[in-house]
Design brief:
2 copies of one chain form a homodimer. Chain A is mainly alpha-helical. Chain A has a domain of 105 residues: Arc Repressor Mutant, subunit A (Orthogonal Bundle). In chain A, 53% of the residues lie in helices and 5% in strands. The first copy, chain A, has a two-stranded antiparallel sheet with strand order 1-2. Chains A and B meet through helix 1, helix 5, helix 6 and helix 7 of A and helix 1, helix 5, helix 6 and helix 7 of B. Chain A binds a DNA duplex through helix 3.
DNA sequence: GAATCACTACTCGGATAGGGTGTGTCCGAGTATACATGG
DNA sequence: CCATGTATACTCGGACACACCCTATCCGAGTAGTGATTC
């Protein structure tokens, strides 16, 4: 899986802790975790295209959340970075070669069905968790994190 | 996801339909679906290393199932081809840079936890389905498949 | 005639190149600020 | 003193190289069968 997913999720939480009233630049978000800023910028652009973040250019510019954390699911972020395609794609090899059934198969490949059910379970689990759930869990495990973020990323 | 997973699953079903009393070469299995035989051979080797298939060299050699289909789960095949690592790997960026919490984090990263739950759901679903379940479904959708396999891959 | 041995043909197994996607970087487009200038 | 225009600094956005892993292939290791050879 694309490494940018992890970066994007952390950045969304950091943006929430900073607060929606101020935008944070990609450079600051990257420095916070020692990430390459230009590449993180690329990932954040994907979140903007997906409607998860908003961005403004120029001084005082940067990124901010487009909507509250409880209206962003983990799957929204994964789809924004990884794309909407399933990991397993059926190439329909059963229809190729001498083993092909005569005529056109009217039902889905049983193998594709089995893999599809698993991917559906994966997506359901991701869609069931909002970033706010993740934030609550993160604050429970590291109560000082929000303060650190506000202190280091805030404009103060 | 690796394309070899699809090939491996189809090949396992084909081996089951041929029957365990005779081995089938990689070349025959590949020709059945017009796949590159040398590369399919590589995937089948992975299944052998995982203990799903057994192989013998030489004339009358080839591959056969190491155990009945109902004792092989879809996840066994996926792990054999893709490897045991999770798709999402937490690089612990929260512990890097100025945003790092003082001391060592005693709890798992909340983000890694969220992704891990989804991957667990995926693996559970894959592990809950045996290749025999897939075979039954495949035969229901294409009743003539077993005969075609036996006719084209059998030594008769 | 039967047993043994070497040879051959055939298949798996691992080592060896090529391509596509993720990874990382750079420069141009766009904007708020600051300052100089003129009224 | 105030308004306006301009220059500037700063940031996002998309276009451009690099690297790694999946894809594909080739040759050597290993084995069953076959035929010749010898007792």
């Amino acid at each position: 899986m694309n490494e940018g997913v992890e970066w994007a999720l952390h950045s969304c939480l950091n943006l929430a802790w900073v607060g929606e009233e101020q935008a944070v630049t990609a450079a600051r978000l990257a420095a916070y975790h020692e990430l390459p800023s230009a590449y993180l910028n690329k990932q954040l652009q994907a979140l903007v295209r997906a409607g998860i973040l908003t961005s403004v250019c120029g001084p005082k510019g940067g990124f901010r959340l487009a909507r509250p954390l409880d209206r962003i699911t983990v799957m929204d972020v994964v789809v924004a970075i990884e794309g909407p395609d399933d990991a397993f794609r059926c190439t329909e090899i059963r229809g190729k070669g001498p083993g092909a059934a005569p005529g056109k198969p009217d039902a889905e490949c049983a193998i594709a069905g089995a893999m599809g059910r698993a991917e559906l379970a994966w997506r359901r689990e991701l869609a069931a968790q909002t970033l706010d759930d993740v934030r609550i869990q993160a604050e429970r495990q590291a109560p000082t994190a929000p303060d650190r973020v506000r202190r280091l990323l805030g404009t103060g």
